[in-house]
Write a structure and sequence with these properties.
5-stranded antiparallel β-sheet; alpha+beta; disordered N terminus; 14 helices
């Protein structure tokens, strides 16, 4: 019986059966490994996009805070309170304004750098901040932003601006702070299904990964690439005995110096566990299950990529649209203007570039309050969109200043269009506490010319045209020569 079982024909049959089984298994294993490599590549690519989106969000926050800081620094109540070093009044104004600001903490100092008031008194009144770099620069007349530590804040993005009196003398500073080590920011990033770590230089100061805060990075390649060369690092790393697909990006101060790093990652174990589970399922029925598993993994990959794309689109939405007015942001507008100039250099017609400014907007804010000013801006943008085509771009350039990009709009059409905009804005109904008031705008138009080197050249001509409209008595338009 034993000899029959192991006759040459039986052995050959067993050999072929085993060969077929092993061949199918090998094909499936190779296919799964190829899929895993592709999954890793796509994961790394999406992590790069998410990382870029988050950094762009921080930049957009900086632009927004700059505008708010300048408005506050020019607020007459704040100027008088800081000039008189009125601690109580400064505290009262701080409570009034901080709820409307896109920041976590705010503080005022006097001309010597001593604290007059701060959010939740996180810095004691009278504390000397004259040596704090951002206060020091502001006291020297320079608005600036960057990343640093202050008192109980271990790492944050700061923006500071000088406060001037009516004689243009510096009487104090305003400092706005967005804390990167708080739970809110880190948990927001963790909600995208990835791990996140904030570095101050080479030290971890906030992380979604357990037991790493306070430790330093020892990966020389990452340190050299990111902290020394200022480049983005993409690759595998090991953190706390776990392997990750990761992206490290530098956090830069306004002067270009590197203050730390931003790290986003996904654990390798997620992909590896999926592969091992699939292999355990397919061994008994290798030929059939191989097709099912590849299809399942492919579907899972598409699903994951779809989720990553959705999250990335959400981040881009935050970067591209101004929260208050629903106009495009300055960051978006800058890229659009660069693109328009490139097309013009290639021979395409120049779009009409509009610069619009709300007449006497400071008077509106000072008379009716910032809430009324916000409503005015929103209603003006709504009016602009109602008179524009779907392809036109309206961009909030800063404060009450807006840019418009209108493809295919010739000069004769501009004149009719400008009159329509002026009439539409002037006819808007504004009312505060039962008191109606009218708001107008001034407009300047310009077109790209062959001598333009930068998009800033056409903006300069549009701004000059806007200035001429102001000199004509406002509520008018001018088209640059």
């Amino acid at each position: 019986m034993k000899n029959k079982l192991f006759s040459p024909s039986v052995r050959l049959l067993l050999f072929f059966a085993t060969s077929i089984f092993l061949s199918e298994l090998l094909i499936i294993v190779v296919s799964l490994k190829a899929f895993e490599r592709d999954f890793i590549k796509n994961t790394s690519s999406e992590l790069e996009h998410i990382n870029l989106g988050i950094l762009n969000t921080l930049n957009a926050w900086s632009d927004s805070v700059k505008g708010n800081a300048l408005l506050l620094a020019n607020n007459s109540d704040i100027v008088q309170s800081v000039k008189k070093t009125d601690f109580n009044k400064c505290e009262e104004l701080l409570l009034l304004f901080e709820k409307t600001l896109p920041t976590e903490k705010v503080l005022f100092t006097d001309f010597q750098g001593k604290v007059l008031a701060s959010s939740n008194s996180f810095i004691k009144e009278g504390s000397d901040l004259s040596i704090f770099p951002y206060v020091k620069k502001a006291l020297n007349g320079k608005s600036n932003f960057g990343f640093d530590s202050l008192d109980s804040i271990s790492f944050a993005e700061f923006y500071s601006s000088p406060i001037y009196d009516e004689n243009k003398d510096i009487i104090g500073t305003i400092v706005l702070c967005y804390e990167l080590t708080g739970k809110g920011f880190v948990e927001l990033i963790h909600g995208y299904g990835i791990e996140c770590t904030i570095f101050k230089n080479d030290e971890r100061v906030a992380s979604t990964i357990a037991e790493v805060v306070g430790t330093k990075i020892h990966n020389e390649k990452v340190i050299k690439t990111v902290l020394e060369e200022g480049k983005v690092y993409v690759g595998g790393v090991s953190v706390n005995k776990k392997d990750y697909y990761s992206v490290y990006a530098p956090l830069r101060n306004e002067d270009g110096s590197i203050a730390g790093m931003f790290f986003v990652a996904q654990e390798k174990k997620i992909v590896q566990n999926v592969t091992r589970s699939i292999l355990r399922i397919i061994i008994p029925i290798c030929a059939l299950i191989s097709l099912i598993l590849i299809f399942t993994l492919l579907r899972q990959s598409v699903h994951n990529l779809h989720i990553f794309k959705q999250k990335n689109d959400q981040l881009r939405q935050q970067v591209n649209w101004d929260v208050l007015t629903k106009a495009n942001t300055r960051l978006f507008g800058t890229e659009e203007l660069k693109h328009c100039l490139e097309n013009f250099k290639k021979g395409f017609p120049s779009p009409a570039i509009m610069m619009l400014d709300v007449d006497k907007f400071k008077f509106v804010n000072d008379t009716y309050g910032h809430e009324a000013g916000d409503k005015v801006l929103k209603s003006i943008v709504e009016s602009l969109y109602k008179n524009c085509r779907s392809s036109d771009k309206i961009i909030r350039w800063g404060g009450d200043e807006f840019i418009g990009i209108f493809d295919g709009m010739k000069e004769e059409v501009c004149q009719v269009f400008a009159k329509k905009l002026l009439s539409s804005v002037e006819s808007l109904h504004h009312e505060i506490n039962g008191k109606p008031f009218v708001v107008t705008v001034s407009i300047g138009f310009a077109y790209f010319s062959d001598s333009d080197i930068s998009y800033k050249d056409v903006l300069a001509r549009a701004d000059e045209a806007l200035y001429k409209s102001k000199k004509k008595g406002r509520n008018s338009f001018t088209i640059a020569d």
